[in-house]
């Protein structure tokens, strides 16, 4: 009986390992080592604004998310883009590369260069941040009322790297 159940369980046991997508070349950070990986759970906030053609479109304004590491709240992610941990360390980043999300509803994967530091905790020597494994968060298209905002739920993994 056990041998007949094992083949049925193998896909479930291997699922997470097989589901991991490799980091696209554009987001690679050679010569760095991970300091922390945290999952963000929150929203991508959009505002209805006039586009270059004068039509109202949803324009990204800011992220608002909780950072979770080792099953505990580790900090927050907010406009800047900024990441702040409970130990008082924080970084601000600037996007330098991107790759599409897995589906049309997922925000892009990003590579960000750290442009500012605060505090001397875990993020004190971080140079690069990768946003990977995004789910949701994307909002496109026309909107009706300038100034209106909309929050799109998303999750992502943020990998904080330092030169190694």
Protein model, in words:
The chain is mainly β and 164 residues long. Helix content is 11%, strand content 54%. It is built from one helix and eight strands; from the N terminus they run αββββββββ. The chain has one helix spanning 2-19, and strands at 32-50, 56-69, 72-78, 82-85, 90-99, 109-118, 128-136, 149-163. It has an eight-stranded antiparallel β-barrel. Strand 1 and strand 2 (56-69) form a beta hairpin. The chain is globular and about 45 Å long. The model is unreliable at 1-19 (pLDDT under 50).
Q: What is the strand and helix layout of this fold?
A:
Layout: H1 2-19, E1 32-50, E2 56-69, E3 72-78, E4 82-85, E5 90-99, E6 109-118, E7 128-136, E8 149-163
Antiparallel strand pairs: 1-2, 1-8, 2-3, 3-4, 4-5, 5-6, 6-7, 7-8
Short overview:
The chain is built from one helix and eight strands.
